[in-house]
Amino acid sequence: MTSIRVEALCIGQPVPFRGEELSAIGKAPINGAIHIGHEGLAGDAQADRRYHGGPDMALHHFPLDHHAFWRGEIGDHPLLDQPGAFGTNIATHGLTEEAVNLGARYRLGSALIEVSRPRQPCWKIEHRFGHKNMLRQILKTRRCGWYYRVIEEGTAQAGDILEQVSHGREEWPVDRVFEAIWGTSEPMDRALLHALTDIQELAPALRDSIRRKLESTPER
Questions:
Q1: Which helix (H) or strand (E) holds 72?
Q2: pLDDT band with cut points at 50, 70 and 90 for residue 220
Q3: Three-class SS string for the chain?
Q4: Measuring CA to CA, which residue among 102, 103, 89, 106 is closest to residue 4?
Q5: For labelling alongside 126, which of 1, 25, 167, 202 has CA 20 to 30 A away?
Q6: Domain 3-216 has CATH 2.40.33.20
Q7: pTM reported for the whole predicted model
Q8: Hey, where are the domains in the chain?
Q9: Residue range 36-67, pLDDT digits in tens
Q10: What distances in angstroms separate CA 102 from CA 20, 152, 166, one per listed residue?
């Protein structure tokens, strides 16, 4: 089982982002213990609850390992020095998408959390960093990050160990789930998508989205 040190826990509130639009993608690390509830970290928020937040997207984990990749792509951007740069709630080194399974459970402090889905990249990443083609690279490389739902509420702080307590769906690591839904492979693998709609650990809203995608896309 995996045990990884948490480098930072980060929260943010909606602030002006583009014109009158608000966003809470900018997260800042917090000191000391923080409550982890079914909606996420205490003091954290999302500006657009249609697409972000909620019990199946309570905590966003984005590996600090990917910051080095992005330095190679966009240069030494100052945001890459911040652990919450990608809307990150949980920042760690040494745990990436190919090693994290859908439905895997982890103990974070006294909370128990479960992997619920990959993160779908959105335009706000490119706007925040001021660089185009970042979404294309995320889709290509599957450096997406992932979400947890909270099974048992608790408290945690930076420096705690994120300890895996169950493997989850070993046939469905996060990078494979991401590739099946949003990846760049052609043609779309309908069999994989159909299989995902039966995985109860996958966030229900995303399963419904996959079903609509299958219904609206004719077979070739």
A1: helix 65-74
A2: low
A3: CCEEEEEEEEECCCEEEECCEEECCCCEECCCCEEEECCEECCCCCCCCCCCCCHHHCEEECCCHHHHHHHHHHCCCHHHHCCCCCCCCEEECCCCHHHCEECCEEEECCEEEEEEEECCCCCHHHHHHCCCCHHHHHHHHCCCCEEEEEEECEEECCCCEEEEEECCEEEEEHHHHHHHHHCCCCCCCHHHHHHHCCCCCCCHHHHHHHHHHHHHCCCC
A4: 106
A5: 202
A6: yes
A7: 0.95
A8: 3-216
A9: 999 999 999 997 777 778 999 999 999 999 99
A10: 36, 17, 11
Structure-block tokens of residue 195: 């299989």
Lookup: tokens for 27: 């997260």
User: Is the backbone peptide bond immediately before 16 cis, with ω within 30 degrees of 0?
Assistant: no
Query: Tens digit of pLDDT for each residue in 110-119?
Result: 999 999 999 9
